[in-house]
From TrEMBL:
<feature type="compositionally biased region" description="Basic and acidic residues">
    <location>
        <begin position="126"/>
        <end position="146"/>
    </location>
</feature>
<feature type="compositionally biased region" description="Basic and acidic residues">
    <location>
        <begin position="104"/>
        <end position="117"/>
    </location>
</feature>
<protein>
    <recommendedName>
        <fullName>LEA domain protein</fullName>
    </recommendedName>
</protein>
<feature type="compositionally biased region" description="Low complexity">
    <location>
        <begin position="1"/>
        <end position="15"/>
    </location>
</feature>
<feature type="compositionally biased region" description="Basic and acidic residues">
    <location>
        <begin position="68"/>
        <end position="95"/>
    </location>
</feature>
<feature type="region of interest" description="Disordered">
    <location>
        <begin position="1"/>
        <end position="34"/>
    </location>
</feature>
<feature type="compositionally biased region" description="Polar residues">
    <location>
        <begin position="21"/>
        <end position="34"/>
    </location>
</feature>
<feature type="region of interest" description="Disordered">
    <location>
        <begin position="68"/>
        <end position="146"/>
    </location>
</feature>
Amino acid sequence: MFALRSSVSRAAARSHTARRFNSTEASAPKGNNTPMLVALGAAVAAGAYYYTSTDKGKAQAKEAQAKVEGKIDEGKSQVEAAKSKAEGKIDEVKGKAQGQYDSLKGKAEGKADEAKGQYESAKSQAEGKAKELKGDVKEEAEKLKK
């Protein structure tokens, strides 16, 4: 009996939690806005045509075009100025890098020459010791022969 009640309550719980309830009803389908948008576009086109066909409209259109071209030219000059400034910075950085490279190259060559000199000095000292030891060995050999 207990098993029956628990299975019924589980089934009820599952079915209750599995359902979804909408808090609002679905809205009614809206109408198509295409005719309104076409009419709005036609009104804008008619206004633009009327505006540009009058002398005042033509003058204002030319003035606006001149302003736009002036802004374009101003923008181009700003781009060129920024470009030349960037190129100057690049050249400056290249110069600094080349100077550091040359400085380090000179230091490295100096250290290489110094190491070469130390090597030659050590080599000549070793050769001198070798000759000295060779002479000592010959003397010892001659003493042993006698």
